[in-house]
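Morning F.,

Quick status update on the modeling queue. The single chain you submitted on Monday has been processed. Sequence for confirmation:
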Amino acid sequence: MTTQSPAKLVTADDLLQLSADGFHGELIRGVLCESMPPGVDHAQIAAELSRTMGNFVKPRQLGRVLVGDPGIKIGRDPDTVRAPDVAFISASQLPLDQRIPGYSELIPELVVEVKSPNDSRDKLNDKAEMWLRHGVRLVWVVFPEQRVVEAHHAEQGVASYRADDDLDAMDVLPGFGCPVGPLFEA
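Structure tokens below.
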């Protein structure tokens, strides 16, 4: 009878090194989950949301808008590092003059997840719930084909915004709003 030794779990530090070597993905309870680039439409929507948010956040010095799958460490022993498409971390959590050279252990107040071609609605809803369980207050899940943004709020539930609506950041970024339709324009 042969026995297999358990697979070695990967740490957040290992993932950081692997990403320097070209690996693209997340770490879930110590297990690597590789992801493929999601395409131009996905990137354009994430860029437009990050630009719009940044234009609101930066002049008011409210915090930072992060893009490009920033690693957020949400679990330890075994490590979990998730990579939202866009995230907002307030200046009260992360002073504007402070840098984080690796993954952040600060939980963003707002996270954006744009549906990739291989994502299911259930997978995205599960991801939104995971973010909320870890302390994110607002998760925007973007569905490009339907031209819809679903806002999952920690206390107010889920609201849907269509192309002719204005997206609202509720109590997370009071005063922020943007029309939904232009997010999907080429």
